[in-house]
Design brief:
β1 and β2 form a beta hairpin. This protein starts with a helix and ends in a 15-residue tail after the last strand. Helix content is 38%, strand content 16%. α3 (35-44) crosses α4 (51-64). It is globular, with a radius of gyration of 17 Å. The strands form two sheets. It has a three-stranded mixed beta sheet with strand order 4-3-5, with no helix packed on it. A two-stranded antiparallel sheet has the order 1-2. With 145 residues, it is α+β, with helices and mostly antiparallel strands.
Length: 145
């Protein structure tokens, strides 16, 4: 499906800022990005799109179901493409890198615990915060050291 079709199917007009921001996520530069990450990428691409527009488009994409928003330990909203498949996250406390994972045993245990407590899970988000086992963390940049 083209970017224009994806926007139209979600009830959004295919404006240049929307197309450029969708392209940033679909290009796979980074899987999890803050608004500032998207803005920095657009600056590198010489796209004349302001930070306020980035925030507005990310909110529109979230409301349309194109993006999912998470809040990790940094407190900043982090966005990723909503591909419809459930996954959990592991966040490196040393560099902030986010790894996605799916574990059937964890999912099964969550269901069992909820059932034992008299609940049916409607939705959940699991984020594990951990330190990198490699010292120094290979994903840490000079700005995070």
């Amino acid at each position: 499906m083209s970017q224009i079709d994806e926007l139209k199917n979600n009830g959004l007009k295919a404006t240049l800022p929307r197309l450029k921001i969708l392209e940033v996520f679909q290009s796979g530069v980074m899987r999890h990005m803050t608004a500032e990450d998207v803005f920095r990428h657009l600056i590198k691409e010489h796209a004349d799109i302001g930070l306020a527009t980035v925030y507005r488009v990310l909110t529109q994409f979230e409301q349309a179901g194109i993006l999912s928003r998470n809040h990790f330990e940094s407190g900043k909203a982090v966005y990723e493409l909503n591909e419809g498949q459930h996954h959990d996250h592991m966040v490196c406390l040393d560099c902030g890198r986010v790894e996605e994972f799916y574990d059937a045993e964890i999912e099964s245990r969550q269901q069992a615990v909820a059932q034992a407590k008299g609940f049916v899970i409607a939705d959940h988000a699991l984020s594990l915060y951990a330190h990198c086992t490699q010292n120094p963390c290979p994903h840490r940049t000079a700005t995070t050291r």
